[in-house]
Amino acid sequence: MRARIIAVAPGAEKVISYGQPTFKLYGHLVAFGAFKKHLSFFPMNSTLISMFPEAAAFAMSSGTMQFQPDKPVPAALGKKLVKARIAENVEMVIERAINKKAETAAKPKAKNS
User: Fold this and answer.
1) Residue 113 falls within a domain, yes or no?
2) N or C: which end of the chain has fewer CB within 10 A?
């Protein structure tokens, strides 16, 4: 799974967040974890998962896809989810920059005495 994520997001930073291996690219991208009864893939957005019908084959819990080691998330689905998360993160960065620029432009300029 890690290799697939890196293939789609080669510039992603590997970190530990909330005790889980996480990839960051323009913000939190995706994470994954191992639990007693399943493995999980965290696309960090519950509505994103529902956009991909093929994800319905997996157990879901709060924006998490749960799976077994012998039935991993298909490579194509994982790539689609990572690409979609990159697009969301880029969009958020752009929105923040636009909002910051608008806030700066709206502030009254100090008069020089």
Assistant:
1) no
2) C
